Amino acid sequence: MSKKKLSKQISLGYDPMTGKRIRKRIYANGTQELRQRENDLRAEFANQCNPSGMTYDEYERKWWNANCSHLAPATQTSYEKMLKKMEPVRYMKMSQIIRTDLQQIIANDWSHPTTCEKLASLMGSIWRNAVFDGVVQKNIAERLKRPKKGKSVRRALTQKELDAIKIAKFTPDERLMVDILLQFGLRPGEAYALDMRSFDRKTRMLTINKALTHKDNLPIIKTTKTGVTRRLPIPDSFWNKLPSKRMYLFTNSEGTLLKRNEMVNMTLHIVLKINYAMGGTYYIRATNLSLYTFRHNKASLLYYMPGVSMKKKAEYMGHSETMFLKTYSHLIEEKEDIELLRQEVV
Asked: Are the C-beta atoms of 50 and 136 separated by less than 8 Å?
């Protein structure tokens, strides 16, 4: 009785002219022969589609120009930092890079889950494009292993932190930044971009429609993260905290918007001074807060505020209602826990 032949249909990628998937059925007398034929066919297809032997470095440049050249400077900087980690495969041919090469790059940063997540996402984007371009026949960056990322904690300010903020030895500009973040819950970039035109005394409203970012340390004004303009009511008690004789609220000694290193220094000083007021030192931290903690604090206060719709609360924070609920879902759990504790045992 003759032995039945094995068969397998494989996908070799996409035709760069039509965009259609290329499939091929192969036959063999055994598993090992079937695997060898698959490998040979993939190698043949790779050489046909990539006759120039394009290296990863060459393809990355094309990918960057097509997909990243229009992005915000801060996003470009983040991508560039990740792409530097691709050095081990930079001058290899795209068709010769294997999945293990990419997994090793991720393993090099295994103790940094966020970095690994960004790397895996970036590799996936590059190889998906390479498949559609016909440079490679398979996306070897799919489902790469990465370390489990701990759940980020978005929390309100503690009472100790609030007490420390009252007595911290801030400069006038630092105190103004803290007051703005406490009152309005802005993203730090939005707060650093504020100018006196943002505050309308007639309508008693603050307009948020821009944010500060940087390119090569130089300040650049861009739209907000969501690109949506929002208007926030200003309480009467806040007006006397604003400076009277300058356009931008936060400037350097030259009167211009803060450069990247100046903004980082100001942020660091605010956090350190709160830490000192809580009894910490430069080396011993009494708090892990960041400027974003002020934003989460405002969101928490809004969330529990009665008489205001969830949609309005989300708009105040610059979120969609869905994103607001997703971002602060832990507050729902906390509220439910409180309600359960209030239930009397009969």
From this structure: yes
* Residues 6+ away with beta carbon under 8 Å from 53: 93, 95
- CA–CA dist 44, 49 (Å, integer): 9
Helices and strands (H, E) in the chain, number of each type = 13, 7
Q: How far is CA 23 from the centre of its chain?
A: 37
Strands 199-200, 205-208: pairing kind: antiparallel
The pLDDT assigned to 165 comes to 97
d(CA 192, CA 264): 11
- Give me 166's structure tokens: 């009252």
Q: Is 217 left (phi over 0), alpha (psi -120 to 50) or beta?
A: left
Tell the CATH superfamily of the 159-289 domain: Intergrase catalytic core (1.10.443.10)
Write down the pTM of the prediction: 0.66
pLDDT at 61 over 70: yes
Strands 230-233 and 218-222, bridge-based pairing: unpaired
pLDDT band at 162; cut points 50, 70, 90: very high
Phi then psi for residue 338, to 5 deg, are -65, -45
* Residue 13 clears pLDDT 80, i.e. is over it: no
Please give the average per-residue pLDDT across 277-282, as a whole number: 92
Domain boundaries, the chain: 6-49, 56-132, 159-289
pLDDT of 174 higher than 60: yes
The DSSP code for 304 is T
Residue 72 has pLDDT above 90, yes or no: no
pLDDT at 320: 86
- Helix ranges (H only) for 73-197 are 73-83, 99-107, 113-132, 159-167, 172-184, 188-192
pLDDT at 231: 95
Q: Measuring CA to CA, how many Å separate 5 from each of 34, 131, 327? A: 10, 30, 54
Burial of 2 (0-12, 13-18, 19+ CB in 10 A): exposed
